Amino acid sequence: xxxxxxxxxxxxxxxxxxxxxxxxxxxxxxxxxxxxxxxxxxxxxxxxxxxxxxxxxxxxxxxxxxxxxxxxxxxxxxxxxxxxxxxxxxxxxxxxxxxxxxxxxxxxxxxxxxxxxxxxxxxxxxxxxxxxxxxxxxxxxxxxxxxxxxxxxxxxxxxxxxxxxxxxxxxxxxxxxxxxxxxxxxxxxxxxxxxxxxxxxxxxxxxxxxxxxxxxxxxxxxxxxxxxxxxxxxxxxxxxxxxxxxxxxxxxxxxxxxxxxxxxxxxxxxxxxxxxxxxxxxxxxxxxxxxxxxxxxxxxxxxxxxxxxxxxxxxxxxxxxxxxxxxxxxxxxxxxxxxxxxxxxxxxxxxxxxxxxxxxxxxxxxxxxxxxxxxxx
Amino acid sequence: xxxxxxxxxxxxxxxxxxxxxxxxxxxxxxxxxxxxxxxxxxxxxxxxxxxxxxxxxxxxxxxxxxxxxxxxxxxxxxxxxxxxxxxxxxxxxxxxxxxxxxxxxxxxxxxxxxxxxxxxxxxxxxxxxxxxxxxxxxxxxxxxxxxxxxxxxxxxxxxxxxxxxxxxxxxxxxxxxxxxxxxxxxxxxxxxxxxxxxxxxxxxxxxxxxxxxxxxxxxxxxxxxxxxxxxxxxxxxxxx
Lengths: 377, 240
Hints:
The complex is a heterodimer of chains A (377) and B (240). Helices cover 30% and strands 21% of the residues of chain A. Chain A contains 11 helices and 14 strands. In chain A, α8 packs across α9 (274-288). β5 of chain A pairs antiparallel with β4 (136-140) of chain B, so a sheet runs across the interface.
């Protein structure tokens, strides 16, 4: 199996237009959550989200294009032969809203493959491209599949690009499901009452170690292992016994060759919903026992970015490993049972080279990645 | 990398069923048949009626593929992955859902419909109904080369991620509002692909993926999915 490096990472989130701004904002405990001004919210169960400042549509194009235009200039030297895997759940759905309202909108933007098509043309890529959609684990699975293809020698370079938007379509849906918190979400807090939506995009360049060395690329980190499992339990709720996530973590550990004791920190999904956070704590307790592993969630700072969440969290996890610190969990105050010694409202030092990142989503999917420390220049 | 095709199931404008029940297969443009629970499942299945059309279409083809492979019955959850390709995804459901949002200023927004506004929702339904705990995700590609899900299935088998993968395609007709986006022939088609082992049941033949990413069935290049099904049925009926 070939070694898989991550040689470039970029992100655009409500905490800034680049990864460094996001990282510094997180360490400072900032939040990008605020009132939604993009569409009327008076009939919904919440009025807040983490929106990117000044993000708007251009002509008849989806806002997704504007988001990608902020991300792509940050991407460093993408080889034309790269395989492109995008990950999104609903990136161009704002154009369906506009069509419904009788406003001119490019209907091609609603297709799941549209972002891949746009990025591929913009970067002049000649390789294949595809979008992977697996609800809130979309980009985690995209990273896993990209890594699997490089490890197996079926690709040399894979560019992962993930994105999702705050739209009325998605907002109304989570509102009618009763999943939105009326106040900024509080992952792993005993008083948490739901999630807060966010938007963002990230890119990750995955490369075989041989190719990366040949091209004198920086190793931001290594993807050691991955696992994805369906809990086959419920269409919109996680399995209470965490069977899917536990198995996904075990698969990732097995693939990585790591033992549970090698994991120095966890970047959790941590949506702030009652059931997700309980399920994750159950899984971590089952796999890691009584060990005090620092656990963080970034959803209180940048909201739940849906299909982009996993990719953004991988980029942040590389920063965390490089700096040997996990960012605070914004909104966390009174620990849920099982989170007392692991989750913190302050940055926490870590000691070790490996980090676990997890995401779970509708349709019962659970995904886990194990990353190894690299170096940020 | 080599594997066996052990089951095929489909629903399209020409009909529906399992590979071993048919001598011919076509994928032609036209209206999809109405998909009722009784046409697909022998047992009562309350959730089926609540699903959107896209989920019922995909789930039905998966049910036929599992039945064809003799894997529809289960007592313990199984490590079977599902990788499906789509162009339009659940756009039809998206339109229906947003119809419930805008006119009533969200007061009647349907939580049940919203749950199906993810293209992977039917994979979740299949996982629940058939006890499938492998990976599950949807692929969409700008190109119309719809062998991509089969390639990813073979890579999944090769990497040891799965021993069994359901792989196929699923698309409804394009909604009126987005008629210009729909170039694909509507329908769903799934293959049950299994690693070669002593436990593998009767197979149509051997599927292989070479180092250049080309798929072959029984040593001959696979042009597209229709060509692959026809090749499988030809082998089956030559033997019977």
